[in-house]
Specification:
3-stranded parallel sheet; about 15% strand; alpha/beta
């Protein structure tokens, strides 16, 4: 099994994770699946996701559903849903229980 470890940073902007995500999205040719307990991408990342769909790549994003704690985390995530959906990104909400992926 191959594993890639990326140094994380909590500050916004360009960091190792952002650079890796952009690179992977640029190279994707079939499907991209993303999950996040606290999805709040900046507009330029939303634009990259939509551009990836525009190249014919399926982009699926799994976000917290009704059991998210705190509820405000779910509300913050939803501010860009319209842009993502209009751009062809598939949004899925985890329904069974609290979703807290890393």
């Amino acid at each position: 099994m191959s594993v890639q470890t990326i140094r994380a940073a909590s500050e916004p902007g360009w960091n190792d994770v952002a650079l890796a995500m952009h690179g992977m999205l640029d190279l994707a040719s079939d499907r991209v699946r993303i999950t996040s307990a606290y999805l709040r991408p900046p507009q330029h990342f939303v634009d990259v996701l939509v551009a990836t769909v525009g190249r014919g790549v399926t982009v699926q994003v799994l976000t917290p559903g009704p059991h998210a704690e705190p509820t405000v985390a779910r509300w913050i995530s939803q501010h860009m849903y319209d842009d993502l959906l209009a751009g062809g990104v598939e949004l899925w909400n985890y329904q069974r229980s609290m979703h807290h992926a890393k």
